[in-house]
Amino acid sequence: MKLFPLINFMVSAFFLTSCSNYPRLLSFPFSDNNRSFNSRSSELNPFIAGEYITFASDRNGSQDVFLFDAKNRRLIDLPNLNSLEEIASNPSISEDGRYLVFTGSTQGKSGLYLYDRTTQQKRPLMTQIRNEIRNPMISSNGERITFEIANNGQWDIVVTDLKGNILNIPGNLLQ
Fold first, then answer.
1. For 60, how many CA atoms within 13 A lie in the half-sphere containing its CB?
2. From CA 5, how far away is CA 54, in angstroms rounded?
């Protein structure tokens, strides 16, 4: 039984030393004007894809989704995305920066939402779900979305396409 911690340490050391550029420290200046990545508010669950960092923050008085362009070091406007009635969390972005996926909670019911930056439209993929949804992730090409859903005391993984259709993958919970 003492062998398990040693193996765990060796595997961790291998992965940490084999990735010379990861993890990396990103240094962004602090700003009180809410136009920077760092602010006095909490930035929850940042997700990095390419030059984009997306995160949820309560910096505007409600928990909203924000998008930061790390290359140009500025926040990107997301018209028609955030709502005062909704608590947004766990955002993820496609590698090209077009699609954002996130969970939203309204009146105790959770939903999964997709925002298209090209059309500036948010649309529900799944709404009014009594089970909690968390950790949505969009594939780098923006074609598939995975998320966790609470089911009978455990977390199951579901895979959908961009329209919210459950994909026919063995083990997909909501098929």
1. 13
2. 35
Tens-binned pLDDT, residue by residue, of the chain (175 aa): 454 444 444 444 444 444 445 555 455 555 555 555 554 445 567 888 889 999 988 877 778 899 999 888 888 999 999 888 888 899 999 999 999 999 988 887 788 999 999 999 999 998 767 788 889 999 988 899 999 988 888 998 889 999 888 888 776 655 5
Question: From CA 35, how far away is CA 138, in angstroms rounded?
Answer: 25
Task: Using a cut of 0.70, tell me whether the model's pTM lies above it.
Answer: yes
Preceding amide of 136 cis, omega within 30: no
The token pair at 26 is 């990103």
Pairwise CA distance, residues 105 & 148, whole Å: 15
CA distance 34 to 138: 26
Query: What gap in Å lies between CA 49 and CA 97, rounded to an integer?
Result: 8
Encoded tokens for 13: 């050391």
